[in-house]
Request: fold
Amino acid sequence: MTNPREENALLTLTLVAKSGYGSTEKHAVSPQCWQAICAITGCTNPDTIEAICLVLAERARQRTAEGFTTAHDDNHTDGALAAASAEYVLHASFTDERDTFPPGKPSDIWPWEKDWWKPTDPRSDMVKSVALGLAEVERLIRAEVAA
Reply:
């Protein structure tokens, strides 16, 4: 490898995922994890690998810090996970109107209590959106298997 960014990512990639409570958790990605993602996806683009790792780190945070287990997610058969994902992706894309829906004041499509609406910045909101979308896909897969 000649790209120092790729070398650094392969050896010491540390991702930071901000929780909704303002704390910061570091998620070290081992060379084995990096190589596994490259092998599975066929992708060696550092930006793509970092994005995948950020989303997976957010899913892990949702499970561990928030306690949102698969059993919890499986109860959301009403499309709530998808709606929450949509809210975050829309919020991330409307950069000129972000102040319209500050923390605790979501739009009408937000499916849960207003206190759970915790936008931060466009990138973090996209990560939350994709992680929530992943949770919905996981739920749908489990529902299909159970059927």
User: Anything to note?
Assistant: The first helix runs from residue 4 to 12. Confidence is low (pLDDT under 50) at residues 4-27.
